[in-house]
Structure formats: C-alpha cells, structure tokens
Amino acid sequence: MQTTTFAELGLSAKVQAAIQAAGYSIPTPIQQQAIPVAVSGRDVLGIAQTGTGKTAGFVLPMLARLETGRARARMPRSLILAPTRELAAQVAQSFEKYGINHKLSVALLIGGVSFEEQLRKLDRGVDVLIATPGRLLDHFGRGKILLTGVEILVIDEADRMLDMGFIPDIERICKLLPPARQTLFFSATMPPEIQRLVDTFLRDPARIEVARPATTANTITQLFRYCASTEDWQKREALRELIRAENVKNAIIFCNRKRDVAILLKSLQKHAFNAGALHGDMDQMSRMATLDAFREGRIQFLAASDVAARGLDIPDVSHIFNFDVPWQSDDYVHRIGRTGRAGKEGRSLTIVTPDDFKQLKDIEKMLGAAVTWIGVAPSAEELASGSKRRRGRGGRQGARPFAKPREAREAGAGRRGAAQAQARARNGSSRDQGRDAPQQSAVREPAPQRPLHGRQARGAEPQVSPAKGQRGQRPPQGNGAPRSNGPSNRVDSKTRQPWEPRPARSQRYREDRTPSPVGLGDHVPAFLKKATRPTPR
Length: 537
Prior knowledge:
It is built from 17 helices and 14 strands. The protein is of the alpha/beta class. The chain starts with 12 loop residues before the first helix and ends in a 28-residue tail after the last helix. 33% of the residues are buried.
C-alpha cells in the first residue's frame, strides 16, 4: 500500500480534522496498513516494535466506527485492555486528543482510583472503556458492568500481558464478550503463547507486520560499557561517568529490581542530579505526578523499573541507560524503544558486568550482530568463560547497597587486625608459658562447707517443704518407694483433726442425696427443687 496521507486511509472528516489539529500529516507504516483494515471491520493482528504509532493505529479507526450509535448504562460499546495503568492512561489521552470533534464518553478503569468515581461513569453509559484486566474483573465480579454489548475489542501490548501473567484473565474476559465483535490485537513480539491466543479468539485476522519481531529501531544508537566489578557502587560510578560524558537532555535509567530503583535514586540525588523514580510499589497519584514532571522537563533523569519499559509514549527522550542488563532480550527491545520514537534520533547505553555475559549473548543473538563497546571491552576469554554465578531476582546474598569501597574495607580490616595483634602480644607470654608447661593432673579440692545455723546446729533434721503441686498429698517414703496406706501424721490446718484423704469423685456421686423435706400442702415449683445428679453406673 502506497498511501502517504491520512486522507487516503478511509477515516471520517471529523477524525481527519483532529489529526490535522494535532499536527500530523503522514502516517507511520503500521498506521498505513492497519487503519484501512480496521475501518472495514476486519480483525487485525499488528506486529511492530515499540514507538511506531500502534496506539493511533487502533484509536483512529475506533473513532470513525463509533461515530454512530449510543451507549447504554453499564454496557460499554468498545473495550481496550492494557497491561499497566500508565499505558491505559496514555490511551485515554490519545482519545482526548483525537476525539475532540466527537462526543464519545471515555472511562478509565485502573487501580489506585476509587470504585465510586468509576461506577458513576459506567452508570451514565460508556462508548470507550479502557481498563487493566484486574480492575475490569473486579467490577464484573461485583455485578457493576455488562460486557455483552462490546462491539470492538483491543488488546494492546499482548506480549507484556504474557510477561505479567494476565493471559488467564484475558482468556476469561474474551469468553465474556459476544462472539460477533471486531478484535484488534497488537504486540511487539509473538511468543507461542500469544500465537495460541490469536488462533483462539481472532477470526481470520489480517496479519500486519512492519518489522521483524523483537527488533530495535534503526534510529537508536546502541552502546555498551564494560564494568569489570560486580559491585553496585562501582556500577553507579560508571553510570555517572556515562551521564557526564553524554549530552543528555533527559533520560530514563532502567533497573531490574524495584529496590535498586530506590537506591539509585538516592545516589543520583546525592550527586546533585535532578532525578525521580517510577516503580510498581508507588501509588497511582505519585506515579502519574512523576510522569507529568518528567514530560514537562521538571525532572531530567527518571530511574524506573520495567513498569515504564513498555507502551509509555514520552516524547523527546534523548537517552536510555540500562543500569542492569534485562533478564530477557525482549525487555531490552522495549526499554530502548522509549527513545528514537517517531523517526527521531536516540541513544542507548548499557552497563555490562561479568554476571551479565549470558544475557549479553542473548541480546547479540536477537540483534544479529556484535555489540559496540565504549572504552575497554571484555576480553574473549572473559566473554567465553563469564561468571559461574548469575544474579537472580533476589540479588547477591549479603550484599549491601551502599557498601564502602574495597580499599576502605581492607584498611579498616588492617586497623582491626593490628589492634588484635597487639592484644595477643600483651597476653601471649602467659598463654605460651601455660601452653609449654608440663601437664599435671589437676586434683579438685572439695568446696568448703557452710556453717550450720538454727535447728541444724542443734542436731535436728532439716525439714523439706513440699514442692509446688504436691501440697495436700502424702510425702514419698524413701527414694522411689511406693506410698503407704497406714495412718498419716498430717493434721488439717482448719479443723486441727487428723488428715484423711478425700474420697474419689465417683464415690461422692454415689452418696445418697435426699431432698429437703417439704411439708404437706406446700406447693414448690419444679424449677425451685434441688436437682439431683443420677448415680453413675
């Protein structure tokens, strides 16, 4: 297809006017091929790397198809599923930008927002419902939404859905939708599980693939920096050297773990860098506020986890720094795809340690070429051998985030060792003498006896008070001898009479219990009579 303008894609006049107002005139390759098919009502399977305009590829035809019709309460007309809250909010912003000439109602169902506000929008009727799978199923489980009126289903960033474990939720949601619908399916990669999902829920889709799956944009310059040490403090020092050497307008710095994002943020702020953080443990308001500050230029560096790697359209990001090499090569594609968007130039720099050689080989295999190094590259022997241990998600056991340099630790250990050596020298002579002296058999002298007082001094035998729990019982006779049945010398403390053992409980129950006498003519209710227990058998 050789179309060069949006006017040739079959869009309505209102949509074309909104596109011109937004300042766009030439569609991207994925938009050129996907929009005419989507306007016709056919299912679409779009495969393209991030940053190629996939969002507008389904937003524009949806606006053209939803111009006619009216939404009913709690029955949305179209549904868009996104893996993250940020991506869902970005899609909602695209509808606001391209739908300025339409009176379509848009609702956003994401976590971090109260249910009541979302329910009010659903009750008024929604033309476009944008949701994350978890929050959508929450509303459906409460009986607050019906999905039988959905005409268009859009699944964005399907491979990201797979990585986040949303495939079972996607399958459940698709089974709740009417079979007579249009499905637009977009993904940057096509793993076997995604292909199975396509074969199950799409009907004869038009496969539109504008680039080889899991490839990077040609506008991105990819560089790698070797750090021979695996210590985090040395990696942070290498990162600062890269930042100072580059002409950075703004940059996103990716880490594999959320805790490393917080540590890196403190380090950047400590060295006077204007930085913010974005990770999954932040509440929704903080995440949106940080993204807005980064878009507006109030924050220059954004330390982020993979929650910001996919789908986020942050314009004019000049640099991407990978503080950690991603565990999957597909994540590398999505990370560096935050720069070099819409044909603009971008730079990507990745710090590699000996623990990352395995992931580096996967990236080279995916790229189909060797990587380009800045500074000293690792030797062939180092690349061949690599590291015997691999850093997992839990990080190194016992590693401290802000550990002192090795020289400082060794100096501290040397000072402590010198002090310990001096202490051993002071005490060594006595120990050595004792160690070299001939061994003699030690005879233990008996301990001195304590003087006797009171009755013990007069020759009386000491009395031993009964132990706790043995009071009221006969004392044992002899060492382990059985109890005697003869008379006891014990006296009851209350009656001053010889102590007699109390009969057993079963014997007390067998005693005759005669009720109190009642005179003739006395009428005593049954509930006032003294109850008697039956004699146990």
